[in-house]
């Protein structure tokens, strides 16, 4: 990790500890506040401070909820099987399923989770898939090839401290494009690997964050995109042989772009963008078709006032599938090509669609579907018969799924106005069932990260445990700055307006106080990454109204965060948060960063962190823990030495989940 803040007492103890149980160390104090004793325990890769022993009864109650799991689609194999990702032991690995509800054949057995699996095209001679894997959550992923015939795995990238991902094959499988920071560790270039020789070279090294989108049918050209922020990308095409890059003009000068792919003829393109249409600004990203030769241009989703999340084209060129995000719910659409006629589809369960991919024959479409009451599973749509078939059914820990709580979508007014009316903020409300009349239930507010992400109604064991076992409601807001609600809404929290999103949490506290079934005296907040910052900021502003907060891998000071985050991410984050090198943003960050104002955090706090986090370095957690303890407030602290930006190993995640529930029991539920 690059430059860091001075190590706190906790970090020094961590680096010097060798025994399973280190002696308690006192926290630093200020303002003559009595010194606190920090009870520290180290067990394996887990370091915990001030966290009581987890009662066996709680572990047993949580066990079934923590043993739910899902399955995610990676693609079709040439023999008509599905490659999926699921977890049977500690981490998610690659499995193959060859018939509906068939056996899941595990293919990989690594202690680290796999990510970014890409199956070789059926039109090539290759028979296998590429996957990414890092070490301990450090996100310096390397790419590997898994060969179905030999079951052997081989390393494709340099194996060093570089980030590699986004593997993309040409139609014949002779070339593989991918993104990599191998050149200088900061810029994400596009590399192309000759599959036969194993030689790789950078074809785009123009600086910034680039990704490969699609090879032309002959493999000679490659559509690429430079990502600047959620609201700004730049598409282009590169000649693979010469490396000549041609950027496409962007209407309006700046726009967001999603997918970009060649039409089956290799000349026209399909793409997703919010570029202006006929000079009129657009709020949402629409699916578009453009043939430069004829000049034909068509907006295929003009009548859908929501973002297109992604699309894919069948290998035989006869169909295109795309997914829209409509108020957090996914809607699947399929078009016949080249007519763009809508294809009739079977009814799908209401939920959120993940990856989706056409079978080699082009007549079936597989997709991952997740709902609030069911973990992710893989389904297959038969286009000819408009029939839906479920291929996997993931376990829910032996629980009665009929008791799972489905959220309702609510909108609550906030502090500012739109067209003279109060702006409303969308939120998903998980309400416990069978609550006796007159009973007021506690509330956990769960805030997503990003900040450009969007909370959607997906399955969460935590929400179900809180509702069914503890009688606690959960509210999941999409405060300003969230994606999915148009470019204006997305930009409402940028740079100096950062705390306007915190005011949206204040407005949610007002809404809770008006609900007869909710107990406004027992409110807590939780969130990860940017959501972790939102937790700390909410406690900084509303400690008189919030009892407790759980901050997971959260930002505590924007200046130190931008200084210490990995260099390949720094400019991407400056585009959203502002540039810490300017006097103006230095002043803003001094005012809004919780680590600068720990005396304002008077609620109980639990901080959880992965030591290998390249996004939000663990120094962000260390400094807020030290600062809040320095003002006499007790803090629970949890650090995993083998995790990064979140907890992907089951044992770690289980412990974190149990500790969080214990924290709620002690600091939220008690009246």
TrEMBL record:
Family matches, as Pfam families: PD40, Peptidase_S9
Lineage of producing organism: Bacteria, Pseudomonadati, Pseudomonadota, Gammaproteobacteria, Lysobacterales
PANTHER family documented for this protein: DIPEPTIDYL PEPTIDASE FAMILY MEMBER 6 (PTHR42776:SF27), SERINE PEPTIDASE S9 FAMILY MEMBER (PTHR42776)
Designated name of the protein: Dipeptidyl aminopeptidase/acylaminoacyl peptidase
UniProt entry keywords in alphabetical sequence: Aminopeptidase, Hydrolase, Protease, Serine protease, Signal
Domain Peptidase S9 prolyl oligopeptidase catalytic: 462-668
GO molecular function: aminopeptidase activity
Signal peptide as annotated in the record: 1-22
